[in-house]
Design brief:
Strand content: 5-15%
Mean pLDDT: 80
Membrane topology: Multi-pass membrane protein
Family: Belongs to the ATPase A chain family.
Distance between the termini: 59 Å
Low-confidence stretches: 1-36
Shape: globular
Number of helices: 9
Helix content: 55-70%
Largest sheet: 3 strands, antiparallel
Protein name: ATP synthase subunit a
Keywords: ATP synthesis, Cell membrane, CF(0), Hydrogen ion transport, Ion transport, Membrane, Transmembrane, Transmembrane helix, Transport
Strand order of the largest sheet: 4-3-7
Structural class: mainly alpha
Number of domains: 2
GO cellular component, one term: plasma membrane
C-alpha cells in the first residue's frame, strides 16, 4: 500500500505531465496554412490556464463546452451552449447574432451584453462549494456518531484544523466575541484552501487566482467588519486623537487624518484581494514558465531540469495553498477584532 507522501509525489508528477500535454502538442507543431511548423507560444499556454473561459479543456482534445447565459436589451435573455461558437475545426465563429472574442461575448451589432454564463471559474466555484458541503457534512456526522469518544476517520483529520482556526486565529484576534465570526472564518479558510488545491490539478480553473473571486471575498469581509463595528470603532475613525487636545487645536490635523482613516477602511480589504490574487496567479505563471522553457529551447536537458524545478515549485504551491488561506482568515479575524474591541 502506498504511503501518503509517495502517493502525493506520484500524483503531482502525473499532474505536471498532464499539464504539459497541450504544450507538447503545440510545440510538436502542426502544419500552418503556409506549410510551416507552428511556433510554440508560452504566453498562449499561460494565459489559457490562468484566464477564465466559456470552455473547460480538461486536457488536449477533451473539452467540455459550458452554458452561455447572456442578456441584452436588443435580444433579451439567451441560454445556449458555448459549442455553438466553434466550427468543425474549432475556429471561432458568430452565433445567433453574438460574437466571442477572447472569451468576451458581444453582439454582432456592437451592442453590450450582460454575461452571467457558467464559465470555468464559476463551475469550479460550484465544485469547491460542493466539496465543502460533502466534507463537512461527513465531519458533522462524525461528531454526532463519536460524541464523547475520540474522533475517527475524516473527523480526526479536520478537527485539529478547526480547533486551530478557533483558538489561534479567531479567539486570539477577536476576543471573547469570536464565536459569532466562526462560521465565516471557517468557511473562508476551507473555501480558499480547497480552491487553491483544485487550481493545482491538471486542467482545473485558476479560481482563487481570479480577481473577481478575491474581490467578492474581500467585500464580504468589509461588510461584516462595518456592520460589526462598535461605537469605539467608529469613534476612533471620527476622533482618532481622542481627548489628547481640544477640538480647536486638532481640527487642522483632522483635515489630514479623516481622509486617511476613511481610505484605511477600504485599503484593508483591497490588500486582502490583491494578496490572494497575486500570490496564487504568480505561482501558476512561474510553474508554466519553467515548463515552457523546454519547448522554447527544444532541449532535453532543459526539459529534464525544468521538470524537476516545476515539480519542486508544485510541491511548494501545496504549502502556499494553505498559507494563503491562513493569511486571508487571519487578517479577516484581525479586522473583526478591531471592529468589536472594547473601549480602553
Amino acid at each position: 500500500m502506498l504511503k501518503r507522501s509517495n502517493f502525493l509525489t506520484i500524483n503531482k508528477f502525473l499532474a505536471i505531465i498532464l499539464l504539459v500535454m497541450p504544450g507538447l502538442v503545440w510545440a510538436g507543431g502542426g502544419s500552418g496554412k503556409d506549410g510551416e511548423d507552428e511556433q510554440f507560444d508560452p504566453s498562449e499556454l499561460i494565459n489559457h490556464h490562468i484566464s477564465d473561459s466559456h470552455v473547460w479543456e480538461i486536457t488536449h482534445g477533451i473539452v467540455v463546452h459550458l452554458p452561455v447565459i447572456v442578456y441584452s436589451e436588443e435580444k433579451g435573455l439567451d441560454i445556449f451552449s458555448s459549442a455553438n461558437f466553434f466550427g468543425e475545426h474549432e475556429e471561432v465563429k458568430p452565433y445567433n447574432g453574438y460574437v466571442m472574442d477572447h472569451d468576451h461575448i458581444t453582439l454582432e451589432s456592437g451592442g453590450h451584453v450582460f454575461d452571467i454564463s457558467i464559465t470555468k471559474n464559476v463551475l469550479f466555484l460550484f465544485i469547491d462549494a460542493l466539496i465543502l458541503i460533502l466534507v463537512f457534512s461527513a465531519v458533522a456526522r462524525g461528531y454526532k456518531k463519536n460524541a464523547g469518544k475520540a474522533p475517527k476517520g475524516i473527523q480526526s483529520f479536520f478537527e485539529p484544523i478547526i480547533v486551530f482556526v478557533r483558538d489561534d486565529i479567531a479567539r486570539d484576534n477577536i476576543g471573547h466575541k469570536y464565536e459569532r465570526f466562526m462560521p465565516f472564518l471557517l468557511t473562508v479558510f476551507f473555501f480558499i484552501w480547497f480552491g487553491n488545491l483544485l487550481g493545482l490539478l491538471p486542467g482545473a480553473a485558476n479560481m482563487t487566482g481570479n480577481i473577481s473571486v478575491t474581490l467578492t471575498l474581500a467585500v464580504i469581509t468589509l461588510i461584516i467588519t462595518l456592520f460589526s463595528g462598535r461605537k469605539t470603532y467608529w469613534l476612533h475613525i471620527v476622533d482618532p486623537l481622542g481627548k489628547s487636545m481640544p477640538w480647536a487645536g486638532k481640527l487642522l490635523l483632522y483635515i489630514i487624518l479623516w481622509p486617511v482613516e476613511i481610505i484605511g477602511i477600504f485599503t484593508k480589504p483591497f490588500s486582502l484581494m490583491i494578496r490572494l490574487f497575486a500570490n496564487i496567479t504568480a505561482g501558476h505563471i512561474l510553474i508554466l514558465s519553467i515548463i515552457s522553457l523546454a519547448f522554447i529551447f527544444e532541449s532535453l536537458t532543459i526539459g529534464v531540469v525544468g521538470a524537476l524545478f516545476a515539480t519542486v515549485m508544485n510541491m511548494l504551491e501545496l504549502f502556499v495553498a494553505v498559507l494563503q488561506a491562513y493569511v486571508f482568515t487571519l487578517l479577516s479575524a484581525l479586522y473583526f477584532g478591531q471592529a468589536v474591541q472594547e473601549h480602553h
